[in-house]
From TrEMBL:
InterPro entries in the cross-refs: Acylphosphatase-like_dom_sf (IPR036046), BLUF_domain (IPR007024)
Protein's name according to its UniProt entry: BLUF domain-containing protein
Species in which this protein is naturally found: Methylorubrum extorquens
SUPFAM superfamilies per UniProt: Acylphosphatase/BLUF domain-like
BLUF domain: residues covered: 21-113
GO MF, one annotated term: blue light photoreceptor activity
Matches recorded under SMART domains: BLUF (SM01034)
Amino acid sequence: MFDEYGIPRGAELGEPALPALHHFVYCSRASDGIDDAEVGRIVESAQRHNLASGITGVLVFGSGVFFQWIEGPAAPLQKLIASLYGDSRHYDIVSLDQSEEERERLYPNWDMERVGAEDIRLVLEDALESAENKNNVAALKRILKQLDSGPLNSLGRS
Ligand SMILES: Cc1cc2nc3c(=O)[nH]c(=O)nc-3n(C[C@H](O)[C@H](O)[C@H](O)COP(=O)(O)O)c2cc1C
């Protein structure tokens, strides 16, 4: 990790030695019986798991629809995606965006933050405003466009 001068290896190249960060964005429909309390339990358990595996992101629940942005190192992220596809608490998972490019975290401080449906546009617009990585910018623009036209358009409206 450090050379004989205590300088992190890779620092002399002027770039931090970041592991490639992947992300996955999807929406899905909540199964019957999934209410606010159950979503609270999902988030609580997600925060514990995600902290341990270096995953961060955002979860939105509104009008019976989930929207989630997850980001992290490839291996734990792929494992989580597989778990999500096998989780009976939601169905009709629609993948909105997935990347394997090197990028910065959009939500470095959120192990899993639940955001109200009415706030999702703001959260994405905020992220777009501060995003420097062109892959993040492109992904966020695609999602915002989808918010207006796709399966997410019931979110953010009450
Ligand atoms: C909408 C939704 C979002 C979820 N988000 C996460 C998450 O961010 N992190 C996580 O570890 N589990 C999350 N889960 C739970 C996983 O699907 C799974 O139950 C959990 O990772 C434990 O998986 P395992 O039983 O295969 O170990 C979520 C479940 C749902 C329905």
